[in-house]
Write a structure and sequence with these properties.
The structure is a single chain. By secondary structure, the protein is of the alpha+beta class. The protein is built from 19 helices and 23 strands. The longest helix has about 60 residues, at about 10-70. The chain is elongated and about 150 Å long.
């Protein structure tokens, strides 16, 4: 028994060592690649959240700057405060009523969290939103100031709040002073809004403490304040991973004006951990299977190789016994090959006198040798076939790796896209790369959420129609992948009118639980897989489906980010009530048009209009009626201007129209037409009665009345006041 296994044991041990080393190497490389990929995706997600937070904060700061400029430049406000300072003590309540009237008339709709007035003793005199001030408690964390006068004012009493972006205007005389405060509060509600939009917990803080957090108060003990403070002091990004809680935390600094605050982004790594463990188990399982299979193949190979040697050894013993009558079985020592050599040495010594029998034995030996060579050739052919299968597996693994690299490359490029149109071009290019042997097309729902519009297609098979109803696709109806494996038997989607000669599947595209569109992929298995077995065909089709699903999983989050950025961009330049451009967009547009028209020596008209007796709509009826008036004017102005004209809501009930390449007479005629059109066509309903609207207008023109935005709008505003002073419902030219 020892001789039978003497060659098998060392061979199997060597095979075990080689396969074990290959399994370990495969496990190490695969897990390293997967871990790096997950870390890269996680860092990319944290950067996106940081960018969204920075964009929202910059938007709030820009809004407060605009409001500050509006209030500080208001002459009525300045006059009211000056009169208050010069009035005797017993008459100050009367002047305070005038200040309150100016505030409530001009700035009642300002989008801020608080507006209030204090005297030089820090006593509250007036508050437009007293419910938000609560009780006066000194702010402990931080205050980002936009414009403080004088410079030694470091903060103010804001109530039981976490943080504030604010501004202040100071009016003072020799003995007294008044302070007007307004601003935006940063609290837990703000942090929860960011967390809801990004699926990650957000915490804001300074070197002194936490400002705002989306983490419930009971769970904030897991916030590492030292790390948050260190990221602010060192201006660095710190990453911490908590394996037990499946949490990954990124600490990074964020600058708001001249203040540095810390941002903590807490991401849930449960899905990544589960995926990593599944891949680890999958790799270990495959390694064990490969080891067992190699053992079985090696053992079978040795048995088949040694079997002829054993038969030859038996024949040699029998030949010597027939010749000499001596049993030499006990003479055998060592392994199979050594024993066979010993037998032949003995046989040579005893067959000197038996030439004929020796020749016969040699002939028999040659036959056995030939049989052994044939068996070796057969085993060699089997090994060659196994090598081919292994090479095919390696090629498939390389193909899968290349596909994953292409998907990662697509995700990186999509992160830089600024519009859906750009993302569609990127997706088209990578569909051609990933599915170069197939055909398909990509569709997106239109604004009505009813029709699917074909954005692009590739391959030989083209869509039968450019647009079709979304209910004509089984994938959209069912809300999951719909595959047609046998086009002659399976029910086809209505948008595929003729029975195709290929396998296809439709995949719905979902972004943040919202249906976006559908991907149609056609696999021509009759041509591509003509040499495959049925099982190989099924695996081939399944691999195509999984690749298409993975492609959409990489694309959907990028599409969500692009749409979110488009929404934020639109909100930053449009007035939400009227749908017109806001004052910020107006100021940038005036400077741009002046620069363009100045080079060409052309003129530009500016029309400023104001609703007559607008306060009466709010006082006599209600604020909803006032909003309806502004909204109706916004709709009328949008429909009444040229494509090159720019209609903006300047503030309150004031509107401004820019008319490039229009002289003073054309601008005046256009203003009169608008005034008459509003009086004739625009009306609203208040308290079950129809209310007519009239406006007063002021006209100025570039470059006659000014060479910058401030001069042009100022002259138009002055002409508007002349129209009001002359009885309203009229148009006046600037002088």
């Amino acid at each position: 028994m020892i001789r039978k296994v003497s060659l098998i044991i060392p061979t199997l041990l060597m095979l075990t060592f080689v396969m074990g080393f290959m399994s370990w190497l495969n496990y190490t490389v695969s897990m390293d690649i997967l871990s790096k990929t997950m870390l890269k995706n996680e860092n990319s997600k944290a950067d996106d959240i940081h960018f969204i937070l920075e964009t929202l904060l910059e938007k709030e700061i820009s809004r407060i700057k605009s409001i500050y400029t509006l209030i500080k430049g208001n002459k009525d406000m300045f006059d009211a405060f000056s009169f208050y300072m010069e009035t005797k003590k017993e008459n100050k309540p009367l002047m305070l009523n005038k200040i309150m009237h100016v505030l409530e008339t001009n700035y009642k709709d300002i989008d801020v969290d608080f507006v209030f007035i204090k005297d030089d003793k820090n006593s509250l005199i007036y508050s437009m939103e007293a419910s938000k001030i609560r009780k006066e408690i000194i702010l402990k964390n931080f205050t980002v100031s936009l414009d403080y006068e004088p410079e030694d004012v470091a903060g103010f009493n804001s109530g039981d709040m976490a943080g504030v972006v604010s501004s202040l205007i100071l009016y003072k005389s020799e003995k007294e002073a008044l302070y007007l405060f307004f601003g935006r509060i940063l609290d837990d509600v703000f942090a929860k809004y960011i967390a809801f939009a990004t699926d990650a917990h957000i915490t804001l803080g300074t070197e002194s403490g936490i400002i705002a957090s989306s983490i419930p108060i009971a769970g904030r003990d897991r916030i590492n304040f030292k790390e948050l403070k260190k990221s602010i002091v060192d201006i660095s990004v710190i990453r911490r991973e908590y394996i037990k809680e499946n949490k990954v935390v990124h600490y990074s600094p964020l600058e708001i004006l001249d203040e540095l605050i810390g941002v903590m982004i807490e991401l849930d790594s449960t899905d990544e951990k589960v995926l990593l463990n599944k891949n680890r188990e999958y790799i270990i399982k495959n390694s064990l299977i490969m080891l067992v299979v190699s053992w079985v193949i090696g053992f079978a190979f040795l048995i088949f190789v040694l079997k002829p040697l054993k038969k030859l050894q038996t024949d040699a013993v029998k030949t010597i016994f027939d010749i000499t009558g001596e049993n030499i079985q006990s003479v055998s020592r060592g392994n199979e090959v050594t024993s066979l050599v010993n037998f032949f040495n003995i046989m040579i010594g005893v067959v000197d006198n038996h030439i004929k029998k020796s020749n016969k034995a040699q002939k028999s030996l040659k036959l056995h040798k030939k049989d052994l060579e044939n068996q070796v050739e057969e085993r060699t052919a089997a090994i060659t076939e196994s090598n081919k299968e292994l090479s095919l597996s390696i090629l498939q693994l390389k193909k899968h790796t290349d596909e994953m690299l292409l998907l990662n490359q697509m995700s990186e490029i999509l992160q830089a896209c600024e519009s859906e149109a750009e993302s569609f071009k990127i997706l088209d290019r990578f569909c051609n790369k990933l599915f170069c042997d197939d055909s398909g097309y990509f569709t997106v729902l239109n604004n009505s959420k009813i029709m699917l519009h074909v954005i692009f297609s590739w391959g030989k098979i083209k869509p039968e129609q450019d647009e079709f109803h979304h209910n004509k696709c089984w994938a959209i109806r069912r809300g999951k992948v719909n595959m047609v494996e046998d086009p002659l038997k399976d029910p086809l989607c209505p948008h595929v009118k003729e029975r195709p000669g290929y396998v296809y599947f439709c995949i719905p595209i979902v972004a943040k639980t919202e249906l976006v569109g559908m991907l149609h992929l056609a696999v021509d298995v009759c041509v591509v897989t003509s040499k495959m077995s049925p099982k190989e065909k099924m695996m081939y089709i399944a691999a195509k489906q999984m690749l298409a699903i993975s492609l959409l999983e990489h694309y959907s989050p990028c599409l969500v980010n692009i749409r979110l950025l488009d929404t934020l961009k639109t909100q930053s330049i449009k007035d939400s009530l009227t749908g017109l451009f806001n004052r910020r967009y107006l100021e940038s547009s005036v400077d741009r048009e002046i620069s363009r028209l100045g080079r060409r020596g052309l003129e530009m008209g500016v029309i400023m209009l104001d609703v007559d007796h607008f306060k009466s709509f709010n006082d006599i009826y209600d604020h909803a009626t006032g909003d309806a008036v502004l909204k109706a004017l916004g709709v009328y102005l949008q429909n009444s201007v040229r494509e090159e004209d720019i209609a903006c809501r300047y503030g309150g009930e004031e509107f401004v129209l820019l008319m490039p390449e229009a002289n003073l007479e054309v601008t005046y005629e256009r203003a009169e037409a608008i005034r008459k059109g509003i009086k004739k066509e625009v009306s609203v309903t208040g308290k079950n009665e129809m209310l007519n609207i009239s406006v007063s207008l002021g006209v100025s023109v570039y470059p006659k009345h000014g060479k910058n935005s401030a001069e042009l709008i100022g002259k138009a505003d002055f002409a508007l006041y002349k129209a009001k002073a002359a009885g309203r419902d009229r148009t006046e030219k600037a002088e």
